[in-house]
Each structure stands twice: as structure tokens, then as C-alpha cells.
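#struct-help
A.M.: can someone run this one for me? Single chain, 211 residues.
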Amino acid sequence: MGKPLSMTSILQQAAPVMPVVTINQVDHAIPLASALLAAGISVIEVTLRNDCALEVIRRMKTVPGLIVGAGTVIHPQQFQQLKAVNADFAVSPGTTPQLLAAANHSDLAFLPAIATTSDIMRAMAEGYQQFKFFPAAASGGINALTAFAGPFPSIQFCPTGGITADNFRRYLALENVSCVGGSWLTPAQAIEQQDWQRIEQLARSLNHRSH
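D.P.: on it. C-alpha cells below:
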């Protein structure tokens, strides 16, 4: 294995959209990953919301050129589990001292989530400069991100939660948004029906980022 990827590098490669994927059957992992990669998406976040998620990540990591991380990381021990399946990064829905400590003892890139200015300041004190903003729409959306830019001009965000095909470009137009996370590229119905062509078409529709 080479040198671990930095979160900065991962977010740059994820632009404009990082698919947030929940897969219920491990056999869907490689076809889904291949469809996204064929459309130019090389960074995927797999949520740890079911028992097969770790195996899904392990299988996706066998696809050359793909950067695969885990979302819904809420327990410190999950960092070790992710290293065991060769994951590239971890994303949390919130930030706790325990998670930050576990991340500091791991060489996995970590994207902690924030929802308030206090969250940002606590994680900045641990050296973090990039954050997931979650749940973005419910926590103030574009207005909140615009407000964050004043006191935190060096901080970059990946807003997730309530991001859709209709509004994602408005988020990307903000200078402090590196990329957005969203589940609309990989609809549950399309995955269940193994409609990989539809998923590839959805991903291809991103083409140009307005920034």
C-alpha cells in the first residue's frame, strides 16, 4: 500500500459530488462502483448502516482507480474495522472527543461532521480544516455556510443531507464548499433493480460544476 490519502486530496477528487451509498447486497458492490467510475466518479462514501457494509467496501476497493470511504462512523473501534477492509477514509455524522482521538491514532483520512460554530471550533482545535456539514438543509443550508465563511475563512465543507439534483449547484457556487455529498446519484430502487445504466447516466449528468 502507498501513502494514505489526505482528506484535502480526497475532497478535491470527489468534486463536484461524492455519492453517499447504502447497499444491502454485497453482489451489488462492484457493478455499482464500476458504473460510477465509468461516469467519472472516483470517490464513494458507503454508509455503515447494515451488516454487509464493510464487505461492500472491501469489494469496491478491488476496483482500480476507486477511492472508497465509510460514512456513518460513530464508534471509535470502526477505524480499525475500516483499516482491515482497506478503506481510504471515514466520515462521521457528528463529532465527539472519542472519535477525534481515534482518528488521531489512525492513518485513515477523517471528515468529521459539524452543524454549529461551536462544533467547528472544537474540531479546529484538534487541527481539522475540512468538515462535513450535516444535516446541511436542516441546519441552515446555504445561509449557514455563507455565515460560516466570515469567522472561518480557511475552512472547507462538504455539505450533505438535503442536497439534491435541483440544489447542489447552488452549494457548489460557494467558495467554502469543496464538494457535496448526496444519495440521489444512487437511488435505492435503481440499486435493487440492478439498473447500473441509470446510475451511470445520473452520474454523467453532473458533467460541469458551476464554481
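A.M.: thanks! Residues 7-204 form a domain with the TIM Barrel fold (CATH 3.20.20.70).
D.P.: also worth noting: The chain has ten helices and nine strands.
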